[in-house]
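Below is one such protein, fold included:
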Amino acid sequence: MEQQIQIFTDGACRGNPGFGGWGVLLKYKGHEKKLSGHEPFTTNNRMELTAAIEGLSAIKVEGVKVTVTTDSKYVRDGITQWINNWKKNGWRTKEKKLVKNIDLWKKLDDLLKRHEVTWEWVKGHNGHKENEIVDNLATSAITKYLTTLKVSDATLFD
């Protein structure tokens, strides 16, 4: 059986919109790589998309088989069910509104041309080992960012 790269992703937000973070765990043949980052004012959906984009962008060779596991139905359904109609309709929804987060959806769509990608969904905060790891990466990225600002959770919305 051919080896696949496994990517686990998660996004988090304190406030929505608010301070955001994303986390990625890549696994391949016993090797692991963890990535994370933050944004100062964003939404949870943007962080979920960013995690998938960053995970796929970390793969330096083209044409590999990849499984992306996310706890975001927005990302999984968007990329597997909705995106073809959005593109056909000029990146508009069936209500004729511009697709939200269009910039990130376009980046993700471009990355899918490089690999053979399968999407899996897992329930978040449900004991899935890798999902817990990427959740911790995403939330820790927010905490680290807030620490550099000398802001605590208690003062975010005071």
